[in-house]
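Extended Data, panel c. Modelled sequence:
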Amino acid sequence: MAIDFEGGVCVRTEVAAGISPAAALFHSLADETRLRIVARLARGEARVVDLTGELGLAQSTVSKHLACLRDCGLVDYRAEGRQSFYSLTRPELMDLLASAEHLLGATGHAVTLRPAHHHMQRRPERLEPDRHVR
């Protein structure tokens, strides 16, 4: 589920070896860069080039972390021409981050894990080819 950059092993391998899916999920969110990507995607879709520019990260770094988040089922993309637009797939993720903010605040370690307007934007619905907009 998450990429172990030191060992080059995906946590999916660790789950197969006996680590619980819950531990793998939290491991995937235990990286500052992935949390920054999730926070940015909570504001809406973004391409890799958008994320590299906004977060000041290398393209390869963003791509590896997006792959991890996709492997966990937290992020997906839609292709439009030659571009890929990434977005969050699970609105429950914002609930999890809200709970983490509350818990950390209660223990004296206040953090912001979600954007100020934390309502996750949905991907635009695609109309079927035979449907007409009125």
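Strands lie at 3-4, 9-10, 75-80, 83-88. This feature is highlighted in the accompanying rendering.
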